[in-house]
């Protein structure tokens, strides 16, 4: 059986205690440890020996927190989950089954979403529509680190999370894995429920602007593998086309996700957030 190290980056997260409670209820028959790394004013009262806390002296980006967790980990496979996620009881068992298949070293799991509160449902539609549990098993170009398992040997080959990136560090890692010859496998049954903590429209839009600024599609190292079109490499053309890009991506989300079609009240927020993402990318290109 695979020995997992489950790593949670955290920064004064109100969801950490619930995340830990769900992880301690796993039906996995193998061994696993849980490492929460980050900065907390007070860690949850947990007496289970499988749980360890790595307290940092100052706030760091999520990728840096994960790296501190990796440094403390003993497992042969590293399973990453965010503090605002609740793992299903069979989460680790599903990840272990996938990693046990020949040639599988990287697996991402599915995301369960709730349709309320309204902005949380919008948030999940915007960022994670490609990874809902309704999506089929298969390969992905990227996998989010809120539900991701990697064999330690693969991580040692490509390196850790890029600590200079305040956002998009998981996309960067996935591209390095792909360039090193690893496939990114998606197993939707290895599921977590994502409960985002951005409860205001401003917080949601700031998050999307930041992810636009740090999208790997603008990184010169990945332009070929990401097939970044020429018009997206110049800020003027991207600014001009941003309304069309936002509309096209929004249409793709709503045509693919039937639940979204049943709740068209989310459409204005999704459309606005995709436009804000484009403006984040424009600002990054202008600085370059």
Which SSEs are present, and which pair or pack?
Elements: E1 4-11, H1 16-23, E2 32-39, E3 51-55, H2 62-72, E4 77-81, E5 85-87, H3 91-99, E6 106-112, H4 118-128, E7 138-139, E8 147-151, H5 152-158, H6 169-179, E9 185-194, H7 201-213, H8 223-226, H9 235-256, H10 258-261, H11 267-287
Parallel strand pairs: 1-2, 1-4, 2-3, 6-9
Antiparallel strand pairs: 4-8, 5-9, 6-8, 7-9
Helix pairs in contact: 4-11, 7-11, 9-11
Question: What do these coordinates show?
Answer:
By secondary structure, this protein is of the alpha/beta class. The chain has 11 helices and 9 strands. The radius of gyration is 19 Å and the shape is globular. It has helices spanning 16-23, 62-72, 91-99, 118-128, 152-158, 169-179, 201-213, 223-226, 235-256, 258-261, 267-287, and strands at 4-11, 32-39, 51-55, 77-81, 85-87, 106-112, 138-139, 147-151, 185-194. The chain has 2 domains: 4-194, Spore Coat Polysaccharide Biosynthesis Protein SpsA, Chain A (Alpha-Beta Complex); 201-287, no CATH class. Helix 4 packs across helix 11, helix 7 packs parallel to helix 11 and helix 9 packs antiparallel against helix 11 (267-287).
- Low confidence ranges: none
**In what range is the share of β-strand residues?**
15-25%
3D shape: globular
Number of helices: 11
The level 1 CATH classification of the largest domain is Alpha Beta
Give helix % range.
Answer: 40-55%
Q: What number of structural domains do the residues give?
A: 2
SS-based class: alpha/beta
- Terminus-to-terminus distance: 48 Å
Give the second-level CATH assignment, the architecture of the largest domain. Alpha-Beta Complex
Main beta sheet: strand number and arrangement? Answer: 9 strands, mixed
Number of strands: 9
